[in-house]
Amino acid sequence: MPVLPSMSDKAATTEETVRSRLDKLRDARVVVTGGGGLVGSRLVAVLRRSGAAVTVLDRMDAYPERGHEIFGVARGDARMVIGDVRDADTVGALLREADFVVHAAAYADVAACTRRPDIAFRANVEGTQVVLEQAAKYPVRRLVLVSSASVYGDGVPGTGGPQVFHEDQPLFPVSVYANSKLWAEHQTRLMLNAASGTEYAVVRYFSVYGEPQIPKPGSHSWMVPWLSLQARLGRPMRLNGGGVQVRDLVHVDDIAEATALALTEEQMAAQTVNIGTGIPTSVREVADLIAPYFPGARRIVTPRPEGDPLGGYASTERARELLRWQAGISVREGVDRYVKWLLATPDAMPRWLSDMTDQE
Ligand SMILES: NC(=O)c1ccc[n+]([C@@H]2O[C@H](COP(=O)([O-])OP(=O)(O)OC[C@H]3O[C@@H](n4cnc5c(N)ncnc54)[C@H](O)[C@@H]3O)[C@@H](O)[C@H]2O)c1
Predict the structure, then answer these.
(1) Which domain holds residue 149?
(2) Is residue 108 lining ligand 1, measured as CB closer than 6 Å?
(3) What is the pLDDT of residues 228-262, one digit of tens each?
(4) What is residue 306's predicted lDDT score, i.e. its pLDDT?
(5) What is the 222 CA–ligand 1 centroid distance (Å)?
(6) Spans of the chain, pLDDT less than 70
(7) How many structural domains comprise the chain?
(8) Is 213 within a domain?
(9) Is the CB of 60 under 6 A from ligand 1?
(10) Is any atom of ligand 1 closer than 6 Å to the C-beta of 202?
């Protein structure tokens, strides 16, 4: 087992440097595709605080009920364009007037992409193709492509898990979602070469969590909100196979900070970097952190679904070296923030979830 970095190691000086480095974005014109979603909305907040002029391009239909409203991006002062990334004219018009792009729009749920590979293809493959074509036609200083640790799949076959995932290891996407993200990565590298005039950087997020995250119907991802919402409803927190699977849980505010830095850090040009904490956390550990907030909370062990991976966590050396960044919010603090937000925001409980029976 490698020596894991400690969250408390994030020195105050690093915080200072992050703030001053983000100042480079003052007055920069940044387009954020998918800026109305969970990650996008937090990123837009970081960019606005840094003085960037932000334009959001988003369909704003990824969540039922009040999902997008809770993220609050439309209440801020970013320019909102409601539209599809497959609309070349719209994307081209926005990029013509932009200095930077973060391409975060995606059909961003593993289970949904499995159910509807056609939508996954249109949003994640065709949509990315349109954004890349327009970035080549109307060059911007840098495009940051948002990718996912799902490209690692279950890790290197035969090694057992949980594993640490290094950026250069062989990739084995095992879902429609992961395959679409890996395609987007490769296509970005191939299309945004020196001749295109637009630089790129690829960021691979691990498991994002944090307020105001609410799962999508039918999703199996996002364990912090899932378990918290179940406990809030007085239902048992289900631990498939005992909850031994691990994830690298990285708070959405850390994700937003790292993504904003990826726009301007010189060494990030043409690089692919993991955005994680470097710390594995098991499902059981998360349930143990949530339980004390809900007196009487129950945990039940359910069978481990066949093929359920043991999971993995990020190698963070490259992020520290090239992005000069490491995560600052521990899982204990992040879960505390999430549960307190949930308790203080009764409206956040989706009706589709409270209407579900225990067994669904
Ligand atoms: N949340 C995670 O754990 C996680 C982990 C790894 C990578 N990612 C990636 O991060 C990015 C943001 O994910 P998120 O968790 O914020 O998901 P999200 O669903 O909250 O945000 C995605 C946004 O993209 C928009 N969108 C989807 N298709 C679009 C289209 N065709 N045109 C315009 N807008 C469209 C949606 O309306 C939504 O607002 C995605 O690229 C996702 O693949 C997320």
Answers:
(1) 7-208+250-278+312-329
(2) yes
(3) 999 999 999 999 889 999 999 999 999 999 999 99
(4) 66
(5) 13
(6) 1-16, 160-161, 306-309, 358-360
(7) 1
(8) no
(9) yes
(10) no
